[in-house]
Amino acid sequence: MITQELLTYIENQIKEGKSTSQIIQTLLQAGWKQEDIDEGFNRQIKAPEVKKNILLAKLPFKKLLLTGFTIFALILIYFLVFNIHTS
């Protein structure tokens, strides 16, 4: 049976960056049925705020940091080149 407790647990674990397999394993060990876990994930994945957390959790921190740095560097280069041409 799907409970709010299950849905909240899944959401919190996703926010903490736990993998799906880690969450499932923990829930199975706690006595939850596989079909309830699957339904809980299906419901949580449809929630917009959880979708965002799932996407962020899937991005490795280094990749996210590198992407941010790259964007910053490109913007900096653009402004340097633009200012040189307008001077």
Largest sheet: none
**Shape, per Cα inertia axes:** rod-shaped
Beta-strand segment tally: 0
The SS-based structural class is: mainly alpha
What sequence of helices (H) and strands (E) makes up the elements? HHHHH
Mean of residue pLDDT?
Answer: 80
As a whole number of angstroms, the C-alpha radius of gyration is: 20 Å
Distance between the termini: 69 Å
- Uncertain segments are none
**Fraction in helix:** over 70%
Structure notes:
This protein has 87 residues and is mainly alpha-helical. It has one domain. The chain contains five helices and no strands. The termini are far apart.
Gist of the model:
With 87 residues, this protein is mainly alpha-helical.
Can you tag this structure with a few keywords?
5 helices, mainly alpha, 87 residues
